[in-house]
């Protein structure tokens, strides 16, 4: 786990099948046990991933959520706060590739969940850090933009916060009941979802085929404030921002 979460290390990869419904049927199974038996890599709670939208379907970015606890015994160096990883395959149909660490998470950038590309080179990961880590770091969830052409092993390169999530009225009320026996709600508006699309439902509209042109040519961006009021928001262009001509 330490090697996996060290910048500069690269690993040969090969996809392994743990269950094929056509062969193994649809009887319930223990995916974790089968993955261990197949010697699959034990990531720290992988959540979501996307192919870089250049049409090649070779470069895949995905996240590990991690422990969502500032007191994680694994620490950052062993993936305690999760990470972002890059898998580069020889071709779209290849079973083999190369895996490397793209960004090593820390307490301030942790609990990554969903992902969306804003352009060919800009990818946004959103946090679902949970009430425990929110309290520990005194900060709610955020969305961070990464440039896939940058080297994040260099401390000078840092992700850019593009959304800072607050609490809506319902989540604020829920937060006041935290610790009450039998009270199940969470007191946050985790950024569970973020999505960028031009609405094209044809094969050419599959995410990864074309680079998004956010705020142009019908491309739109949405994110959710899960828990609380459960509102879905749309991002709109700043007329003086970088995406405006």
Question: Any overview of this molecule?
Answer:
By secondary structure, this protein is mainly β. The protein has helices spanning 21-24, 31-37, 130-137, 169-175; strands at residues 10-14, 46-51, 59-64, 83-89, 96-104, 112-117, 122-127, 142-147, 160-164, 194-197, 220-225, 231-235. It has one domain (44-235). The strands form three sheets. It has a five-stranded antiparallel beta sheet, with no helix packed on it. Strands 6-7-8-9 form a four-stranded antiparallel beta sheet, with no helix packed on it. The longest helix has 8 residues, at 130-137. The mean pLDDT is 92.
Keywords summarizing the entry:
single chain, 245 residues, mainly beta, 5-stranded antiparallel β-sheet, 4-stranded antiparallel β-sheet, 4 helices
SSE order and pairing:
Layout: E1 10-14, H1 21-24, H2 31-37, E2 46-51, E3 59-64, E4 83-89, E5 96-104, E6 112-117, E7 122-127, H3 130-137, E8 142-147, E9 160-164, H4 169-175, E10 194-197, E11 220-225, E12 231-235
Antiparallel strand pairs: 1-5, 2-3, 3-4, 4-5, 6-7, 7-8, 8-9, 10-11, 11-12
């Amino acid at each position: 786990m330490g090697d996996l979460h060290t910048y500069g290390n690269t690993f040969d990869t090969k996809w392994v099948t743990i269950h094929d419904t056509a062969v193994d049927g649809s009887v319930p199974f223990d995916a974790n046990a089968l993955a261990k038996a197949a010697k699959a890599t034990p990531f720290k709670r992988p959540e979501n991933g996307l192919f870089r939208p250049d049409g090649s379907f070779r470069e895949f970015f995905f996240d590990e959520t991690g422990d969502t606890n500032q007191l994680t015994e694994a620490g950052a160096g062993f993936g305690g706060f999760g990470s972002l990883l890059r898998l580069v395959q020889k071709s779209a149909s290849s079973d083999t590739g190369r895996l490397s660490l793209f960004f090593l998470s820390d307490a301030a950038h942790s609990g990554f969940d969903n992902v969306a590309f804003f352009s060919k080179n800009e990818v946004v990961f959103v946090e679902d850090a949970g009430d425990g880590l929110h309290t520990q770091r005194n900060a709610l969830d955020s969305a961070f933009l990464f440039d896939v052409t940058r080297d994040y092993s260099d401390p000078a390169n840092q992700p850019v916060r593009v959304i800072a999530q607050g609490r809506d009225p319902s989540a604020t009320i829920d937060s006041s009941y935290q610790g009450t026996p039998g009270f199940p709600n969470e007191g946050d508006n985790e950024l569970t979802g973020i999505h960028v699309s031009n609405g094209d439902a044809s094969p050419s509209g599959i995410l990864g085929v074309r680079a998004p042109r956010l705020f142009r040519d019908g491309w739109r961006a949405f994110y959710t404030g899960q828990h609380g009021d459960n509102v879905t928001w749309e991002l709109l262009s700043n007329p003086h921002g970088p995406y405006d001509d």
